[in-house]
Amino acid sequence: MRQKTNFRAIGRVALQACGLLLPTAMAQAQRLIQKVETVPAGEQWLSPGDALQVRLTGTPGGRATFLGGRPLTELAPELAGGRRGVYQGTYILQPTDTVGGPAGRPLWLHLRLPNGRLDSLPTAASVRLLSPSQPLLAVTRGTLAHLNYGLGDDRLGGAKLGYLDSLVVLHVVGRVAGQYRVRLAEGQYAWLPLEYARLLPPGGFAPSSLTGSWILQGDSVYDYVRVPLSQRLPYRSQILENPTRLVIDVFGATSNTNWITQRAGLQALGAVYYEQPQADIFRLVLPLRHRQSWGYHIGYEKNMLVVRVARPPARLQLRGLRIALDAGHGGSNVGATGAGGVSEKDLTLAIVRQLQRELERRGATVVLTRTADESLSMAERVTLLRRQRPALLVSVHVNSAGNAAARGTSAFYRYAAFRPLAAALYGRMQQTGLPGWGLVGNFNFALNGPTDYPNALVETAFISNPEDAKVLTDPAQQQRMARRMADGIQDFVKSVRAKGMRGWLGRQPAEQ
Ligand SMILES: [Zn+2]
């Protein structure tokens, strides 16, 4: 913008006058501004209506501005961690703005003191304004693309909204540092990590589609729901309970579903239907005939949305059940380390090997993510497990805490639908004599993310606690834990048998 250009020029003059021509140390001493940044920090792409937030740290008592004279407010010290000289400003971007231009550029912030001295500094990262008249589109890449709720990050990664198939078209309306902000529907947004996105050339329309008529059918293993779309749209899913049902929102889709054909061979699906909760969200409601969900997978065949619904195993017993076990860490990823240098990766493999023997003794078929001390990324594990299509997964880990007093066993699950498996394992693990540390839900761990099969993670005990460490490193105690975990899996399977089928909502009229 015009005024901005003026300020940039003034900024350069100020730099030459008080900074660039002087030795560095003196220049530092003379600067009025110590730091400028956008909040959140990092490269930003914004759309009209978004808030552009900036912060300047410098000499107190001045007048700070950005965007051609818009004022920043100097924070009271109690709002700035006791500091003076912290200025903040917010600007809501307008459709006619040209901030940053189409290519993006750093944003200049200015600080003028009452004595007339002026300093200007650009943000380290650039700001770019996206035009709603030229929708920016991206497609998902790879098989592990996922949406995040927000910009959060920790050792587990940001909280995930769900996985997406490849080549799903997304409308990019922003970017902050390492993630694209995508618009799913009116008022609904999510974030996509850059590594799972490929930007498309300009000229495309914001993604949308009418839905065709559904076909439901079963093969020898799964039930399927097929919904024709004209392009691959993003979706979100969850299992709701009482009654047990799978609910899938397809964003950008509007119903032209005029019938739902339910062919022979369906076993898991009940009386399915759809809703259109808002103009651009199409909702599949898939009641399940069994109270316990055995998982599902959503993906595309060309532009056909395909929901693959797993059935409970034919015989609800360990004999013949295909169980996946994951020994946490391995290779260069040693995990937690205990006194005497014992490492989590070795303990988890030893315990998983015992659990494998125990389950095989009871007639189960066991598949392992790793059988030796090898490095295996989370992505490799998830990919491998999806291919193996187990009936369920148990991932085994060893806990550790800075506080040596923390001890006990715990079990983790991501989705409430899979809580019974984690709860059964947790209950049985306490029978080894280990105290219960807790049952943890909504756990954002990569191996708890897949919805394809019930899964749980067991943190057997704390290697950082001397009593727990004795249990963890003793082969006889490892075997006891393995037996109890096998009991827990057996309890889960039995409980599903006891829970059985649900009431009328799930049944197919033809089969009653
Ligand atoms: Zn671990």
What does this structure look like?
The protein is of the alpha+beta class. Helices cover 19% and strands 36% of the residues. The protein has helices at residues 2-20, 24-30, 344-361, 378-388, 419-429, 466-473, 475-499, and strands at 33-38, 44-46, 51-58, 63-66, 70-71, 73-74, 86-92, 105-112, 118-129, 136-140, 146-148, 160-163, 169-176, 179-185, 188-193, 197-199, 209-211, 214-218, 222-228, 235-240, 245-251, 253-255, 260-262, 273-278, 281-287, 296-301, 304-310, 322-327, 365-368, 392-399, 409-412, 436-440, 455-462. Strands 2, 4, 5, 8, 9, 10, 13, 14, 15 and 16 form a ten-stranded mixed sheet that branches. Strand 31, helix 5 and strand 32 (436-440) form a beta-alpha-beta unit. Zinc ion (ZN) is lined by residues 328-329, 335, 344, 397.
Oligomer: single chain
Rg result: 28 Å
Euclidean distance between termini CA atoms: 70 Å
Query: What small molecules does this complex bind?
Result: zinc ion
Low-pLDDT segments: 1-23, 503-512
Fraction of residues in β-strands: 35-45%
- Could you give me the name of the CATH homologous superfamily of the domain at 322-497? Zn-dependent exopeptidases
- What would you say the CATH architecture of the domain at 322-497 is? 3-Layer(aba) Sandwich
InterPro entries: MurNAc-LAA_cat, N-acetylmuramoyl_amidase_3
Keywords: Hydrolase, Signal
Enzyme class: hydrolase
EC number: 3.5.1.28
